[in-house]
Amino acid sequence: MLHLDTGNTAFMLLCASLVMLMTPGLAFFYGGLVGRKNVLAIMMQSFVSMGWTTVLWWAFGFSMCFSGDQKSGTDFFGIIGNFDWAGLRGITLATPSPSNDTIPMVVFCAYQMMFAIITPALITGAFTNRITFKAYMLFLTAWLILVYFPFVHMVWGGGMLAEWGVKDFAGGIVVHNIAGIAALASILYVGKRKVVDRGPHSIPLVALGTGLLWFGWYGFNAGSEFRVDSTTAVAFINTDIAASFAAIAWMCVDWRVSKKPKFLGLLTGAVAGLATITPAAGYVSPTTAVIIGLVAGVVCYYACALKNKLRWDDALDVWGVHGVGGFLGIILLGVFASTAWNPAANGGVNGLLAGDSSFFLKQLAAGLFSSVWAFGFTLGMLWLIDRITPVRVEDAHEELGLDEAIHGETAYVEVDVAVVRPIQPL
To answer: Residue ranges of the alpha helices (H) in 224-262?
Structure first.
């Protein structure tokens, strides 16, 4: 039964709006990182997810994620939910949220939908300039059904990982790790770019995207408490602390290596810190957030350096930032979680340093399991899609740029500058 709390409900509507804003922010972030000929193509891949993922979420995605659970035997093997809420059937104004009975189900549905929208969009940075739009639409559909929806149910919907005791406050497993590992599988399948990209073509655009992502991330992490209390405040400040320390750590390491403080490094480091703190935001202290931020900035920097050394063409460092950052956050949660910052009665747990080694091992196993699942299913679906329609663009289209070749549009109009003759004196 719904016991409506207008404060909690208003807060969650605001948080849903903030998370929604992250997808346009991601589009700007990625758009600035690519060359001028592929700006619209990469941005459209984010924006189209806002439309198509919403369609799938309404039709059956929300029901696959949150209807039924393993404990009552009403889901399918603890992996996906049932279809009782397909098309939002049976959900009324009086239906309470499963996470908090003071919030209407429709608000919970909207908030979780924003997570579903941005997660597959994260992957697009890995195969930028190389994938056809038709193949991307098939990939978006299949990846949501086979990877994202199952992990939402397993972790947040009462599925097998939740029953096992795995914790993920706002999406280290459910969002960043599986997206980053899917990005790695994608770049290995699709292969390297044949045309050298001249991006980033606009670092100010990257900065705008980073600002929107950082701003929206407060709703992403603090909103995952699903109410306004002290844990909400801790998740909020931990988000900012980790992002800030990671940004400075990345900039300092980059400065030491390249001999110059790079703005792009500062921005990328902030996103790495945000991704890494996400699973732990509401379970650890602000001091721990400092440690997580510093570790994220350094480890994710060297992960991206390793990617370059191995010649993986992860165009926008999705694996190094989100895959490595998400996995790192899952493990560090297992180390640093403390009921002093989130009481056990509220779902909090103690990690390795607080005396519970079993929780650490569960987090490690969950991180490895999610990585193997995301990698395997992503490779498989790309292979299958390639049998239906070519995944990779034609060489001529890659040379021309996907904006014009696939979408028939250009982000920037080329203007011929006429030669202006000096005015002759009378």
So the answer is: 230-258
Average pLDDT over residues 139-148: 98
DSSP 125: T
Query: What is the C-alpha to C-alpha distance for residues 23 and 116, in angstroms, rounded to an integer?
Result: 10
According to the model, what pLDDT value does residue 425 have?
64
pLDDT class of 342 with cuts at 50, 70, 90: very high
- For residue 418, what pLDDT band results from cuts at 50, 70 and 90? low
Amino acid at site 275: A
Q: Are 105 and 91 in contact (CB under 8 A)?
A: yes
Backbone angles phi, psi at 104, to 5 degrees: -65, 150
Class of domain 6-407: mainly alpha
- Measured CA to CA, the distance from residue 378 to residue 182 in angstroms comes to 6
pTM of the model: 0.95
Q: Encode pLDDT of 187-241 as tens digits.
A: 999 999 999 888 799 999 999 999 999 999 999 999 999 999 999 999 999 999 9
Q: What are the residue boundaries of the structural domains of the chain, listed by start?
A: 6-407
Phi (first) and psi of residue 154, to 5 degrees? -60, -35
CA angle 122, 68, 66 (to 5 degrees): 25
Q: How far is CA 146 from its chain centroid?
A: 17
Instruction: Output the six-digit token pair for 146.
Output: 């086979």
Residues 6+ apart with CB under 8 A from 404: 37, 410
Determine contact, residues 376/383, Cβ cutoff 8 Å. Answer: no
Rounded Cα gap, residues 203 and 400, in angstroms:
23
> Strands, E, within 58-123: which ranges?
none
Q: How confident is the model at residue 421 (pLDDT cuts 50, 70, 90)?
A: low
> Could you tell me which residues come within 8 angstroms of residue 10 by beta carbon, excluding any fewer than 6 positions away?
none
> How many residues does this entry show for the chain?
426
Of 170, 1, 209, 30, the C-alpha closest to 96 is: 1
Residue 196 is predicted with a pLDDT of 86
Closest CA to 397 of 189, 200, 131: 131
Q: Are 210 and 413 in contact (CB under 8 A)?
A: no
Q: Which tokens in the block code for residue 393?
A: 């663009």
What Å distances lie between residue 9 and 1, 13, 72, 88, CA to CA?
15, 6, 28, 19
d(CA 328, CA 152): 19
* Cα distance between residue 379 and residue 50, in whole Å: 24
Three-state DSSP class for residue 35: coil
- Are 154 and 79 in contact by the 8 Å Cβ rule? The answer is yes
